Amino acid sequence: MAAYRRKDKERTSASWKRYYQRKKRELYDKKRAYIAANPEKVRRWKRADYERHREAYIRRAASNGRSERAKLQRAIYYRTNKERIATRHREYAQRNQKKIAEYLRLYRLSTEGRASKKASDRRCAARVAAYKAEWARRNRERLSQYLCVYLRERSRSDPAFAMRLRLRSRLVRIIHRHMTGRGATAVIQELLGCSLSELVRHLESKFLPGMSWDNRNQWHVDHIKPLCAFDLTDPEQQAAAFHYSNLQPLWALDNMRKGGRWQPHR
Known about the structure:
With 266 residues, the protein is mainly alpha-helical. Among the domains are: 92-123, no CATH class; 124-157, no CATH class; 158-259, no CATH class. Helix content is 76%, strand content 4%. It contains 14 helices and two strands. Strands 1-2 form a two-stranded antiparallel sheet. The longest helix has 36 residues, at 2-37.
């Protein structure tokens, strides 16, 4: 009896496959017509079926998505239907412009969106730097007005930011004085804990291959332990943050990739 059932099942399956191959186009059209005529009914059925077999759906999706066969099938389908897929995406984007814009706005403001942008900026630091430089050149007046307002308002509401800004400006002026041959002994000693000549020797001892004072615009004076890791309203932490031993020359792109990250020595 078991053997008969197995053979009967195989015959039925083979018969159904032959029928499906002959009627595939017709069956597909009937299915599409039914879905178009009963969208709510189909949606409810799919939702109920998903809830009943949720774990199986998740396992199958994970398995299918990871398999090499699935990747190959997706690639073949995309190549075969590239124009149709592009048209469908364009039509969807045109119908849902406001919805997409709102989604992107919320995503950019989310923690995940900000982290994704930072990671992308680090990967594409050279391209991002070139784009920002070109944008700043074209919008110099607009950028200047924005920065004036932003820095003023941020400094009023954030004392630590105001302190960082003020101390960074002093450090930049010190480097500029060295480049132009003017002195600032008292300011340097107070801020960095060393003389100008000692600061120059310290930075030169840490120059990476290719660095010199002639290409100063290509590298930054980086704080090894970032300023954001200090409480700059505390005089002791302020002194440690700007002490010359916490400074190093770093190529501009590497400094952009580093950002505010710091890995203390273990």
